[in-house]
Prior knowledge:
The protein is α/β, with parallel strands linked by helices and about 725 residues long. It contains 25 helices and 21 strands. The strands form five sheets. It has a seven-stranded mixed β-sheet, sandwiched between helices. A five-stranded parallel β-sheet has the order 1-2-3-7-6, with helices on both faces. Magnesium ion (MG) binds next to strand 4.
Amino acid sequence: xxxxxxxxxxxxxxxxxxxxxxxxxxxxxxxxxxxxxxxxxxxxxxxxxxxxxxxxxxxxxxxxxxxxxxxxxxxxxxxxxxxxxxxxxxxxxxxxxxxxxxxxxxxxxxxxxxxxxxxxxxxxxxxxxxxxxxxxxxxxxxxxxxxxxxxxxxxxxxxxxxxxxxxxxxxxxxxxxxxxxxxxxxxxxxxxxxxxxxxxxxxxxxxxxxxxxxxxxxxxxxxxxxxxxxxxxxxxxxxxxxxxxxxxxxxxxxxxxxxxxxxxxxxxxxxxxxxxxxxxxxxxxxxxxxxxxxxxxxxxxxxxxxxxxxxxxxxxxxxxxxxxxxxxxxxxxxxxxxxxxxxxxxxxxxxxxxxxxxxxxxxxxxxxxxxxxxxxxxxxxxxxxxxxxxxxxxxxxxxxxxxxxxxxxxxxxxxxxxxxxxxxxxxxxxxxxxxxxxxxxxxxxxxxxxxxxxxxxxxxxxxxxxxxxxxxxxxxxxxxxxxxxxxxxxxxxxxxxxxxxxxxxxxxxxxxxxxxxxxxxxxxxxxxxxxxxxxxxxxxxxxxxxxxxxxxxxxxxxxxxxxxxxxxxxxxxxxxxxxxxxxxxxxxxxxxxxxxxxxxxxxxxxxxxxxxxxxxxxxxxxxxxxxxxxxxxxxxxxxxxxxxxxxxxxxxxxxxxxxxxxxxxxxxxxxxxxxxxxxxxxxxxxxxxxxxxxxxxxxxxxxxxxxxxxxxxxxxxx
Length: 718
Ligand SMILES: Cc1ncc(C[n+]2csc(CCOP(=O)(O)OP(=O)(O)O)c2C)c(N)n1
Ligand SMILES: [Mg+2]
C-alpha cells in the first residue's frame, strides 16, 4: 500500500469527498487520532492517579469532527456535552487546555480546576460551559437561538449587551446557528422534548446532534427510546429537518451536518442529526461494559472504529500513504507528550480561589449606589400593579429585557389585541406589556417550567436580560435542575467566563382561603440554600418596585418572590416612586421600631407581626419588626443591631417550621449574639405539614398573629 501513488493536489477532486479538500481530509484523520490518543493518555494518567476522572469520546470522533468542520467557532454557538472531545479539538480547544482541566490546574481555562475533564468552555470560541447533567443543554441552545433572532431584530439590544459586563463576547451574525449535542439516553429527558417543541414552534436555528452509541451507561437504546430510534420518534415535529447518518463515517456525517446547517442558516427551522456511533471504552473509567455487552457485540463495534476505518480509506484513495499516516501519528504523540508535561507541572488552584465568581465581580447589588430616594407620584398602586409599572419602565430603558412565561402576554393572537382587554398573567402582573412592547418582547411559552428557565439561561448567556415568570411557585419544581444545576452555577463553574443574570419571578405563598396544597406553597429556603442565586421577597409595593429594578440592573440570577396574598392588599400600596428607584439587596426595612423584642420576618408574615405588635403595645411590650425583604443576601447587621437592642428574638416565617429559613437565622443569633440574649430564640412558622384547602385548616397550619403574640409574651416574661 505504501507504494500506492498519492493523489497530487492538482488532481484532487473535492466533489468526491463532500466538497472537502485534501487538507480537510487530513485534518479529520489527525483530529480523530489526536482525540483518541488524548483519551488514552488521560486513562493512563487516571490509572497513575495523576488525574481524578476520565470520560472518553472514543467511537464518536468522526461525527464530532464533521460537526466542527460544518460549523464556525466564534461565530456559531455551541452547547456540547461531556463526550465531545473531538468536536472541541476541531473548534480550537487545544490538547494543552484539555489536560490542564484534567489535572485541575489553576490555569485550566475552562473552569480553574472546578469542573471535571471534558467540560470545556471558551467565550472566544462561543463554546458555553456545560454541566454534567444529561439534558439541560438542549434548552440553553434554544434560548441562545432566540437571542440570535432577537439581536437580528433589535440592534440596540445588542449594543447594550456589548456594553454590559462580559459584553466583549456578545455578538450576533445574520446567519449564525446554535449547535447542541447529547447522547441518545439524554433525549429521554423532558427537557429534550421541551426544547424540540420550542425550537419547532419558533423555527429556531438549532442543530440538535444526537450521538447514539446505543447505550446510556448500561441501558440499551431499545429500553430507552420507544421504538428504538429517536429520529423516528420525533419525525413529525414541524419545521424540523431530520438527518440520520453513520456517525463513524466522517464524510457521510459531514454531508448530513452540512445539510442540517444549511437548513438552519436559511432560517427554515431546527434540525436534528441522528448519528450512530460506538462506545468502545465503556461509559467512563468507572464502568466496565463487558458486564452487559457480549463479546460479539463488542467485536462488531470494533469493526466500526472510525479511526482505522478512515485511515485505510485515505490510503486507498491515495490521499495519504502509510508513511504520512505514521508521520501524523508521531507528531500527535509528541504534541500530547509536551502537553502532558506542561499539565503535570502546572500549579494547582489556591484554596482561597473557591469564593471567586460565585456572584458577579462587576455589579454589587448590595452597593450604596442602589440606594435611591423615591419620587412618589400618581395614585397609589397595589403590589401587583407595581410589577407591570416597574417592568414597563425598565423595558424602555433596557432593550435586552424580554418577559415570558405562561399566560404573561396580553393575547396570543396579536391581531385580536384591538378587540380584547388582554390577559397579562393570571394575576395581571404583566398586563399591557405586550400591547406596549409587542410580542417579540413579551410572549407566552408552552407549559414547561424547565423550558422557561432553560431558555432564559440560553438568552442570558448571550447577554440578554430575560425576566421569566413561573406562574405559581408551587410549579417551579420542574425547573429545579435548570435553577440549581445551571443558572446558579454557570459563573462559578466557568471561572467567571460566562454569566447568567436571569430574573425568575414567582408568585408565592398562602393565606389565600382555598389555595390548598398546590397554590399556597412557600419554599424559599430551598433556594436561599443555593450559592450564586439571589433571593428577594418584598412585602410592600414600594419595596417591590425598588427591588425588582435592582434585580434587572444587577448581574446575577435572581429569584424574585412575589407574595400572592400581598398583591392587592390596601395596607402595602404606594404611589410609583419613579423610573430610577432602586433598593439594594441585603438591606432590611425596619417596619416598626421597638425595644423589647425583635421580630425578624418577611413576606406576608410582616403584616401579621404588625397586628401582633399592636396588641403587644397595649400590653406594654414594645416589638421591633425587621422586614428582611432580601433573603439571600440578608441583612445581618440589621438583625444584630435589633437583637443587640431588644435582647430577645423571634424569627417568624410562613414556610414549614423545621429546616426552615428561621433555622439559619436562629442558629446565627445563637452563635454570634449569645451573650446579648436574655431569652431563647423562638421560631414561629407553619406546621410541618402541607397547606390545606379548608380555611380552618389553613388557619391552623400557617402562622397567625396570635402565634407571634404568644411567642412574644413568653419571651417578654422570660
Ligand atoms: C440528569 C442526569 N441524570 C443522570 C445522570 C447520570 N448519567 C451520566 S451519563 C448517563 C448516561 C447518558 O447516556 P447518553 O445520553 O446515551 O450519553 P452517552 O454517555 O452514552 O454518550 C447517566 C445516566 C446525569 N449525568 N444527569
Ligand atoms: Mg449513549
